[in-house]
Amino acid sequence: METLMIVLTLFLGACNSKVISNDANTQPKTSFYDLQYTSIDGQVIDFKQYKGKKLLIVNTASECGFTPQYSDLEKLNEEYGTKVVVLGFPANNFGGQEPGSNTEIKGFCKKNYGVTFQLFEKSSVKGDDKNVVYQWLTDKNKNGWNDQEPTWNFCKYLINEKGELVKFFPSKIKPTDTEIISML
């Protein structure tokens, strides 16, 4: 019962999180394009290839109440792929809701949601062991303004064509929500 209360409290906190944006238009201290990370297939992806494109970065999980957002992410990818690149980062940071291996995660996403957008290897997205992408996304000394870590699975970070982080969206904001679509 105590575990259920903790999970419920965390979930409600994720639902009540606020959208945070870079209203001051501050410049990042380091470039997002200098980063690299390993794909779910084990290939190193150099983020320089995304220069000039908007990016929606999402921490994902296969056993979460927000998991159906994979469908919305794929829809966004299909309908707006010329305007935004979707990058998914499976993580097991919230309630143990991503227990699978990279192979299992990839298979689950393909079979259940037809995911074709880029997925990366399972990693941590918060705390001391967070991956280099989330270190950049959540450190205002690196990105210029934001220190908001994901509050639950399926939080979203929007990066503009210049590689600047411009907005944080909590889990409850769907990828196809007008708040996101209007910024593409």
UniProtKB/TrEMBL annotation:
Gene3D superfamilies reported in the protein's UniProt record: Glutaredoxin
Oxidoreductase keyword on record: yes
GO molecular function, one term: peroxidase activity
UniProt KW keywords: Oxidoreductase, Peroxidase
Active site: C64
One example of a Gene Ontology biological process annotation: response to oxidative stress
The keyword Plastid is annotated on this UniProt entry: no
Family: Belongs to the glutathione peroxidase family.
PANTHER family associated with the record: GLUTATHIONE PEROXIDASE
Protein known as: Glutathione peroxidase
Organism annotation: Solitalea longa
